[in-house]
Amino acid sequence: MNLEKYLKRKRLIIDRALDHFLPSDEELPRNLHRAMRYSVFAGGKRLRPILAIASYELVGGRGRGILPVACALELIHTYSLIHDDLPCMDDDDLRRGKPTCHRVFGYGMAVLAGDALHALAFKLLAKGGSRKVIEEVANSIGTRGMVGGQAADLEAEGKKVGLKQVNFIHTHKTAALLRACIRAGAIFGNASAKELKALTSYGEKFGLAFQIMDDVLDLEGTEAELGKKIGADKYREKATYPRVIGAGNSKRKAKALILSAKRELRNLERKDILEKLADFIVDRSN
Ligand code: GRG
After folding, report:
1. Domain boundaries of the chain, sorted by first residue
2. Which of 41, 138, 169, 180 is nearest to 98 (CA)?
């Protein structure tokens, strides 16, 4: 199947579902709901819900029952971006090509919009009805996942770091949620033990490669393509792969991880989309 067509079709379905699940702009408190919708519909790639759906479909899942879970993953991602952009974290003015949530709605409303998206995500996960999926996602975004990685990332700013530390940050801050998206789709679709094992390994490698390429794009991308200021990692002396091993080696590492991620799928059926998604994230420009 053509990946571009697949992405377009899934994005449409996901956006319609997000629109349905989010409170309307007119519901009180209006500014809070406007801030939530502003950030969710600012134009993300919808990679996380698409990974969950693709993984669900790989294990034989069909239909739209996965949508509350898929949308929950996008809401969690958006909450993390809103909080990450705040002055107390990365202090960014631009996200997804638009002024960041706190620039438009103020600091307090941005914190609350993130909190409310987080809460709504768990309501949707509960609607999905799988305790295992709820646990999977909660583990991936807590202290042993995204939030723990973000804490390590903040602490590493401006300090000399080694590969071990950068790997810890990347696997927790970014890869843990991506891996959970793939596992959540598989668990929701009643994956076999063999399928879940292969998809978990694929998710780990995919997640790390994704963050390494994000580091590279911060150096080599453009503001127009990325929809955010570039060079911010260097300016803030962030713990990144290029800082430790250089941009060329970082790209080689990401490509090797993607090759290895695809190899994990070799004994599975219906792997076409996940293989193409893996190539997409190393070839992407945003
Ligand atoms: C604040 C709890 C908390 C966590 C923040 C996700 C995160 C942790 C920080 C975001 C900083 C960042 C840019 C990390 C790089 C990886 C990443 C999440 C990139 C953005 O994801 P994309 O490219 O974004 O999928 P879109 O906009 O397409 O959804």
Report:
1. 3-274
2. 41
